Amino acid sequence: MTGRLTNDRLSAQFAFLNEADKLKRVLRATTLCDGSRAENSGEHSWHLALYALVLADQAGPGVSIDRVIRMLLLHDLVEIDVGDVPIHSANGQAHGSAEVQAAEAAAAERIFGLLPGDIGAPLRALWEEFEAAESPDAVFAKSLDRVQPVLQNIESGGGSWIDYNVTRAQVEARVGAKVARGAPGLWDWVRDRLGGFFPD
């Protein structure tokens, strides 16, 4: 009986991991730093986890980088069902809308529900904490999620900003406030580099 329970548990765990592989098929508007192709959401999640590890010194008091890394590895899994909605696209207003939030919640229910409850429930709770962006860990994680595409656009010579005719005011409004909330020093550094793309 124990062997069967172990097999059932492993089957559920691998079902989730195989489902998570689909995140690699979700293409984002942001390109790689060299501009050679679009980044996928799996790559984005890995890169953000590395951002958290390397930029831990930019986190505020009480932030647990281990928890931030876990959030960032999980935060976009719902895009397997919902896809990516770029904040600067023509329908960027859908980003964060009630309709998108409901679709993402349903996706979270399905995807985390593939796991045994003792694993899936805490992972789902971490995803929800990230989405709420109220805890110090989630605020810092959101800051990194917003700043990474900015840095890749800078590195690639404008990237998706060119594609979507983005203005500096849009970057400041849609990105700056969220980054500054969790990593003010990071936003100061990035803002100084926006002038090359958005002359005053």
Automatic annotation (TrEMBL):
One of its GO terms (molecular function) is metal ion binding. GO terms for cellular component: cytoplasm. It holds the Pfam family HD_3. Signal peptide: none annotated. Keywords: Hydrolase, Metal-binding. Residues 20-187 form the HD domain. SUPFAM superfamilies: HD-domain/PDEase-like. This is Putative hydrolase of HD superfamily.
